[in-house]
Amino acid sequence: MKVFNFVTAAALAVSLAACSSVDGTGAGTAGGAGIGAGGAGGVNTSVDQGSIAYFTTTVGDRVFFATDSSSLDSSAQATLALQADWLATYPDRTLVIQGHADERGTREYNLALGARRAQAAFDFLVAQGVNPSRMSTVSFGKERPEELCSDASCWAANRRAVTVVAGGLTG
Amino acid sequence: MSIRNLFGALCALLVLALPGGLFAQTGEPLRATIGRGVFEPIPMAIPQFTARDAAAEQFSGQVAEVITANLTGTGLFRAISPDAFITPRPNFDVTPTFTDWTVINAQGLVTGATSIGADGRLTVAVQLWDTFNNTQIGDGVTFTTDQANWRRAAHKASDVIYTRLTGESAYFDSEIVFVAETGPKNARVKRIAIMDQDGANVRYLTDGSDLVLAPRFAPNGTAILYTSYRTGFPQVYLQDLVTGARQTLGNTEGMSFAPRFSPDGRRVVLSQTSGANTDIFTIDLATGARTRLTRSPAIDTAPSFSPDGSQIVFESDRGGSQQLYVMPANGGTARRISFGNGTYGTPVWSPRGDRIAFTASISGRFHVGVMNTDGSREQLLTASFLDEGPTWSPNGRVLMFFRETPGPLGAAALVSVDVTGQNLRYVPTPAGGSDPNWSPLRAN
């Protein structure tokens, strides 16, 4: 269920990004410049694009991995590229990337695997121009699943790297 | 045949029976597949003890009950119901009337006495009898302790009985450190807890505010290592069980986890993560010096020393999938020892030195198994949705691990199984339990 929501959110983010570039480049950056300026930007919604809620739900705060893999597929790369754009817009934001594994592995291995996943996201963001000093990583292994069922859909949703913006959710 | 010889013969049968097809079945837990008339638990009578004074009366039944639970819990002995006893409460101070016991087919008889001394301390005296040979097995033994420690006296008596009947060292007077689990799967509260091996006397060492993992006893039982997210990321802590003092081990940058002591207690082996890479290090507890043992860009973790301290078994995916490797204790060339189908993790060297217990994941099922230290004679002992993280009893005869059930209400429980794969039993804990680690036999 969560995977599906995410895909929808990611698609929405892509379309919103397209809209805002058409909408007027000036307005887009102005909207991001200050919290108060959001309303003056001319965007006909009340969403604060600098908010953590916006980052989490619209930009997309997480990417997913195949079993026992830390490779970023095209969907993950697209999400991270959107994260990098957002981070470029809000350069004072710092973040922690949490790596997670599904429940189908042993505890220590999953801790190490989660670290790999967090680092993969970290490295991609650095390659996109995000200053590494703004970011840190941590692994929770299989300790903090988000989806509770024990089938393939939940495991896929739990194999994730989540970008947590400072002031947002904590582990 | 004396009870002792009989037992030896049965043990020989057990051992002979093992390598064959006993573990070919992979369904739910491989319980007592040995049945088939090959092995029958030895019938024992353990009547209520003689109380020498009124204050000792309450212990006269309790101690006998704990001894009964210990012995029958091994699966090697069966307790005859007290309802069948001709002499419900035999006099400790006279030689038993053996026919009273042979007629109900009790091959072994335990008699005992409890008394409270002038200093208020409890004394437990125990004798063991071979009823069919009309003989006592060994001399009587006595244990004196504070009344609050009465269970330990029962455990020590059980150890003596077990050793006399099996010829093996025992494990009843020992403890388990584990992670006590409560709360839902996605917000589980974990606390480090210690209890007796039979689940009694649970006490908590952490309060649940921090995520904690995988506690491990020091070889002398007076300290533990564990991993905690106290600072927000996993770090290894050393906690003195006497003073309660706690210190961080290793560097404070990056994650460290999967600690275990060296057999001499002077070093800790653990894994540390830098970026995407997890390697194995040792830390000298006296100097704090850190030594890197592995350099592969792969995941190297879950290290465990051999009991002679010369080698370390660990898991690595350097070959492409999670497998077991053995290397010299100071690092150097590692050789792979696991070659079965599936992935292998959480290796633990047995206290006898000849076997390694592990977790194997094969076709979506998880197993606890054992193999020789070169990887030969692999045997899977258990199977379920998730069986993980074995630990050895002090005598190397029993493994304890945790079993987690699937689904939104999934929970973890502690389970023990003989190294032969028989006698699978759930270990009682107040709520969920995971990551068990067995202490050495307690000293005094």
From TrEMBL, chain A:
An individual GO BP term: cell division
Keywords: Cell cycle, Cell division, Cell outer membrane, Lipoprotein, Membrane, Palmitate, Signal
Keyword Transmembrane tagged: no
Bilayer topology annotation: Lipid-anchor
SUPFAM superfamilies: OmpA-like
Chief location: membrane
Localisation: Cell outer membrane
Function: Part of the Tol-Pal system, which plays a role in outer membrane invagination during cell division and is important for maintaining outer membrane integrity.
Entry-linked HAMAP family: Pal (MF_02204)
Description of how the protein assembles with itself and partners: The Tol-Pal system is composed of five core proteins: the inner membrane proteins TolA, TolQ and TolR, the periplasmic protein TolB and the outer membrane protein Pal. They form a network linking the inner and outer membranes and the peptidoglycan layer.
Protein name: Peptidoglycan-associated lipoprotein
Species in which this protein is naturally found: Pontivivens insulae
TrEMBL record, chain B:
Thylakoid as UniProt keyword: no
Keyword Flavoprotein (UniProt): no
Protein's GO biological process: cell division; protein import
Domain of life of the organism encoding this protein: Bacteria
Signal peptide: 1-24
Main localization of the protein described in the UniProt heading: periplasm
Alphabetical list of SUPFAM superfamilies matching this protein: TolB, N-terminal domain, Tricorn protease N-terminal domain
Membrane-crossing segments per the record: none
UniProt domain TolB N-terminal: residue ranges: 33-136
Locations listed in the record: Periplasm
Cellular component GO terms, alphabetical: periplasmic space
Function: Part of the Tol-Pal system, which plays a role in outer membrane invagination during cell division and is important for maintaining outer membrane integrity.
NCBIfam families: propeller_TolB (TIGR02800)
Subunit: The Tol-Pal system is composed of five core proteins: the inner membrane proteins TolA, TolQ and TolR, the periplasmic protein TolB and the outer membrane protein Pal. They form a network linking the inner and outer membranes and the peptidoglycan layer.
Family: Belongs to the TolB family.
Protein name per Swiss-Prot or TrEMBL: Tol-Pal system protein TolB
Species this protein is from: Pontivivens insulae
Source taxonomy: Bacteria, Pseudomonadati, Pseudomonadota, Alphaproteobacteria, Rhodobacterales
Gene name as annotated: dpp5
